[in-house]
Amino acid sequence: MADEAYDEVRTVEYRLAVEHELNQKPGKLYPLAGDSAGYQDKGAQLIDRFGHLDLEEKQTRNEDTNNTDVSVERRFIKKPKSADVAPLIDRDDQKATKVDLGSPIAASTGLAVRRYHDKQWIKGYFGNGWTGEDGDTAVPFDSNNIIDLGGNFTKAGLLAIREAMNLGDVDTEAEMPIMLIDPQSETKLLQIEEYVNKDYTADGRPPLMMGEIKDWLGFRFVKANLKSRKAFGDTVDLLVPAANHIALPVFVPSGLHRGIWTEFWGKITERNDKKHSTQIYAEACSAVVRTDEAKCFQYVVDHSV
């Protein structure tokens, strides 16, 4: 009984330490969803979106009511499989049994959980949305919103995406579009004269002075090493439509929803069957889904050009 109580104390310390890590440094991608909610069921209805309506001018007094049928699109989110990790720490390798804030195991677990949730963001962005009466009809990414000019990252490409968003009635004044950029696209951005020339900046200070990436042409740029399999695993394949190419997500936050079934759950147990090694267990479960196809784009660039 004493051993069980001791494991429970260490488990509480471990959970608090990892939660502290996640609060201090959230992931790079998953906080970008416009809204989020916690769920327990396998799926949930998110929104009913009504079709376009127009008011029509009355023609005569006491005329018939202008009854109008309107289309309704219902969007859903579905629960994915949970993900977990359970490393064993041999007694010879244990330096301390207490898990303090900032301890290596808490930091490592926090990093793993952040990477999992970020990978779920990529899966959801490029994967299917869900609609229909019960949420069983898949909605693939709108091919009309994939902007491929056959070249590298350029000002012309940014303007083409901005134009496509405006033509699609995306309110870019209410929400600033966000674009994820990989290191090679960042380099190309810093080579655009209007971007680095202080004569074109609002504060008169060029980005090259401090190396920071500023908003430009109405876009907020978020840097991420999108081709890093260490960070994003197999989801990198969703970002690479062809060799030397990358599809950069461009969106306004309200077009995405994040569902959370388990942000983080952990436990520490002494394993009698493993010569009393310590089992560190972590589990998470989340999903991101597009809720409005008109607000999600891809900017495909060819880094070989």
Tell me about this structure:
This protein is of the alpha+beta class and 305 residues long. It has one domain: phage-related protein like fold, CATH 3.90.1690. Helices cover 27% and strands 28% of the residues. It has 8 helices and 14 strands. The protein has helices spanning 2-24, 104-126, 155-167, 183-189, 193-196, 207-210, 229-232, 236-239, and strands spanning 35-38, 43-50, 72-78, 83-85, 88-89, 129-131, 137-139, 146-148, 178-181, 220-223, 245-251, 256-271, 277-290, 296-302. The strands form 4 sheets. Strands 1, 4, 5, 12 and 13 form a 5-stranded mixed β-sheet that branches. A 5-stranded mixed β-sheet has the order 8-14-11-9-10. A hairpin with a 5-residue loop joins strand 12 and strand 13. Helix 1 (2-24) crosses helix 2. The radius of gyration is 24 Å and the shape is globular. It starts with a helix and ends with a strand. The model has no long low-confidence stretch (mean pLDDT 84).
> What is the helix tally?
8
Biggest sheet features: 5 strands, mixed
Q: Give the count of structural domains.
A: 1
Gross morphology: globular
Structural class: alpha+beta
Indicate the radius of gyration in whole angstroms: 24 Å
Estimate the mean pLDDT confidence: 84
CATH fold field value: phage-related protein like fold
Fraction of residues in β-strands: 25-35%
Spell out the helices and strands N to C.
HEEEEEHEEEHEHHHEHHEEEE
Query: What are the segments in which pLDDT stays under 50 over at least 5 consecutive residues?
Result: none
CATH architecture: Alpha-Beta Complex
Note the gap between the termini: 66 Å
Q: Can you identify the CATH class?
A: Alpha Beta
Instruction: Work out the helicity level.
Output: 25-40%
Number of strands: 14
